[in-house]
Amino acid sequence: MSTTESKDVPSPLPNADDASFPAPWAARAFALTRTLSSAGHFTWAEWAQALGRELHSHQLTLAGQMSEDLAYYRCWVNALELLLQGKGLLSDSTLQSALAMTAAGWPHPDHHAHRQPIAVSPAQT
Fold first, then answer.
1. What is the pLDDT of residues 10-41, one digit of tens each?
2. Which pTM was predicted?
3. Is residue 55 assigned to a domain?
4. I need a labelling partner for 24 at 20 to 30 A (CA). Which of 76, 77, 80, 83 fits?
5. Is residue 78 part of a domain?
6. Which residues have a Cβ under 8 Å from the Cβ of 85 and sit 6 or more positions away?
């Protein structure tokens, strides 16, 4: 498929700034999907089909387990994983390793929480 096919199915939002997300990981999933599609790894039409399949297959299993917004983005992440695996961009071993690392303890040991407010000076003209 060519990258021009991405115009066949419009993106749900013009940009991530216009969206509200139920959790930070959902915003990251959205941004990653948009970036990968914009880079030509898959068209938006391919993405819409993958997400539609995932939403359909999980409509009963996720019901009542989490908020509707969180369930939607859980399906979003599952669809992205499956699409990337299907295109050979993500191996099962890489995915399992990342999931195990996340389950072992988050935040990552190299992550440093910023507990002090960040001061931003207004631009000087």
1. 445 445 455 688 888 888 899 999 999 999 99
2. 0.64
3. yes
4. 83
5. yes
6. 91, 92, 95
